Amino acid sequence: xSSSSLxxxxxxxxxxxxxxxxxAALRHEIDEIDDALLDLFRKRLSLASCVGQAKDAPTGPHxxxxxxxxxxxxxxxxxxxxxxxxxxxxxxWREIVGWGLNRQGRLQVQVWxxxxxxxxxxxxxxxxxxxxxxxxxxxxxxxxxxxxxGHGVAVLGLNTDDAWWTALVRExxxxxxxxxxxxxxxxxxxxxxxxxxxxxxxxxxxVSAGGDAGLGSSARRWGLATHHGWSLSLTxxxxxxxxxxxxxxxxx
Length: 252
Hints:
- It is built from six helices and nine strands; from the N terminus they run ααααβαβαβββββββ.
- The chain has helices spanning 3-7, 18-54, 67-80, 86-102, 117-128, 140-148; strands spanning 108-112, 133-136, 153-157, 176-181, 188-192, 203-209, 221-227, 230-235, 247-251.
């Protein structure tokens, strides 16, 4: 490295020790990487804007979320990442994807979780990134209406006095579950007006009344909530959104 380059990162290179010279060289290399990352990020944001204009979507109001595409991007990045970097890579790419989506219009997310709001809010923040506008709300039905009108996403808690999820096969049949927060057995679900073809690969979310709703004894199930004969569960059965079995979405 030339003396002029070192002057950019350290005032008087002639008076530096060997350790200080080595540190200055490392910092200079980091600065160059930062510059390259910024240029690539700007390019990605520009491409995201173009993708938003060309994106296939159902007619009428809807979100521009493509959970299947996001799932594929994340899986590819985590496959390439070292195991010890996986958590950092996931968090970084959530932010990158979120800011790319922001170029297509800021994502609005309403969160209702009266029993554990912090857990639901933090899960939504990690999933959608800081580019999304999150708001805690008091009325789950209003949040569902907000999502059904195509304005954004509703993140709603489970095992509460309001069994809002029963309406996903009736009043809010235009909405689909596409993610869950709180662990392998989620304590809150994300719903939006999602193109069924864009749902992630993974366990299907089923709302049923009085029994297993035809899922079959060979299909593994995970119970999430119950209410007056209704049940909400996850299953590994291969169901399509809207089938008679009561599939209302999927969690990757």
